[in-house]
């Protein structure tokens, strides 16, 4: 096996005696690693055959006029006009042209004037190292003291005609132009007046128009007059229960902020813990309200709002109403606040059964009206032609489920509502007088009435001797033609009041005395 020489051995070719360095080997450069070239890359990127360097001319190249080698190809000669304009002077061998008058290579000077002035190299405008110097303005001074010139005097001022038209318009032409403008303006105004007075947008100008005369449109007692006085006392009632709720109406009946409305407007709010009740007045004032008391049997409730100096409605008497009297309904139907509708009293003492809560019947002794009443009018005001409150709008008859007004609306008479409201404000609840019987409506050839189905033990009816099968036809001063009318007649009396009861028992009329008890 042959042994490779160590790179640390001395080189005898350097002519030095390195015997002393034998024990200290010297480090020589590591030989360069030249990896083999890929034949495919060599074929693609290698120099052409016969070319030894990067800038070597190809074989067969010829030298150009300036002695440099070329590839044997020459550019096309320039066009004749360009050659004449830019060619060198005849016999000149210079490659760079100089300004006229410059010295040539042979030391001669051109006879043409020099391009640069003498001393141009000292000109500060051409010297980039020159300092900036502030001088006077580049305006010729013509004031006093220079060449004896006097200051400029103020010139003549221009007239309005000269300012607008210059000096090319004669005064007569200006006057004519002004007169023409006046004439055109007058003619246009006259034509416009004639068109406005005699013309019609739908017919020709010769049509005969109806006469319009000034008149008193809002006399005392008119609907607009009554509405303007009553609207501030009627409020919208908003009930919020979680993400739901409902709307209704109410009437301010006391200066301390008591509002009378229907029980069904606030019944859900009284049972929900997170319910909120608000009242919105005619001027947009919004106030939180609390429920003072409710009476489900007459569908009435009283709210209390904390407001200063509210407008209070004036109470009337429903007993003074007659069929055909004009009435006005005010409320917030379908959420439309401060809505006013007009009608008449269609009927009085109409026994109307309502959808109530609990097991007891809800029957009102209603005032019937054809004034338009819709959902949301509940709790609103029914006023007479004077603007006095005669009823609380409560219910309507509809042609179908969820329908609107068909001209049959019902209101609780204010004579009954005032008594219930006063009791709710004092005690928060109301007790009603009753006989203590359950009845149904019956009719035969002799008439109709309320037939007793059962008698409650220990009730006023049991003590008076009323039995099952009796048909009650009158209670006190009110005739009874149905079971609903018996309920209305009971509520019109006081607890403990003794009343006469007329009934039919086995075809024979009987009159009894009964002392009404509390429900």
Q: What Rg is obtained from the alpha carbons, in whole angstroms? A: 60 Å
How many strands appear in the DSSP assignment?
A: 20
CATH topology of the domain at 223-427: Thrombin, subunit H
Order of helices and strands: HHHHHEEEHEEEEEEEEEHEEEHEEHEEE
Helical/strand content category: alpha+beta
Protein name: Serine protease
Region (Disordered): 1-152
Organism: Longimycelium tulufanense
Keywords: Hydrolase, Protease, Serine protease
Task: Give structural attributes.
9 helices, 519 residues, Thrombin, subunit H, Pdz3 Domain, 20 strands, 18% helix, six-stranded antiparallel β-barrel, six-stranded antiparallel barrel, alpha+beta, disordered N terminus
Structure description:
This is Serine protease. Pfam families: PDZ_2 (PF13180), Trypsin_2 (PF13365). It comes from Longimycelium tulufanense. By secondary structure, the protein is of the alpha+beta class. The strands form four sheets. A six-stranded antiparallel barrel has the order 1-2-3-6-5-4. Strands 7-8-9-12-11-10 form a six-stranded antiparallel barrel. Strands 14, 15, 16, 17, 18 and 19 form a six-stranded antiparallel beta sheet that branches. It has nine helices and 20 strands. It is elongated and about 165 Å long. It is 18% helix and 26% strand. Among the domains are: 205 residues, Thrombin, subunit H (Beta Barrel); 86 residues, Pdz3 Domain, CATH 2.30.42. Strand 5 and strand 6 form a beta hairpin.
